[in-house]
Amino acid sequence: MSSFCGNSDCLNRSRFLPEPPVSDKFRQYEQLALRVRSFAGLAGIHDRLDPYALAESVGLRVVPLDSVVGLSDEAKALLQSTASGAWSGGATPVLPDGTRVVILNPSHSETRKMATLMEEICHVLLGHQHSELTTDSENAAAGRTHHQQIEEEAYSVGAAALLPYRALACNLSRGQSIRAIAAQAGVSQALVRYRIKILRLSHYLV
To answer: Has this prediction a pTM greater than 0.85?
Structure first.
């Protein structure tokens, strides 16, 4: 269902390509995000994206942590930690049936889980290789292989799909608060602030 804002300056079209005053890299992320929204069947730039419905369409199955068999209490405690920078979620490699399983940290807020799920969805849609557990031979510490560029792309595209440039700029220009924008898009206020910062839209808050 479309949520047209009534602003004559807002085209309210997913095919509209914004030109935010950012680097070419982040402009590309915005373009990719519009394609994700189009793939999700959204016609309006203000329409809310449902990551859970989109996950199913790309072969991701979200399962609760409690349903995972074989995890020790110590492992479960680690995977549902509330500490700053704690694990937020992840996906398995492709399973024999062609799907992947996504597990989200149950202690996190629903808005954070949605952002994490969108990141995993974008890994799939953007064709990223699955990260693996590896052992550092120098200090024998196990860690997740981390490709900063890939992680940045997945998170940035996912965030832009949840809150597109045009929708954010439109709402800010109409004087909407960060809280109101977050509620409308179904995202956290932190994500709204992140989008405002990287898209250089903070002048609307003055």
So the answer is: no
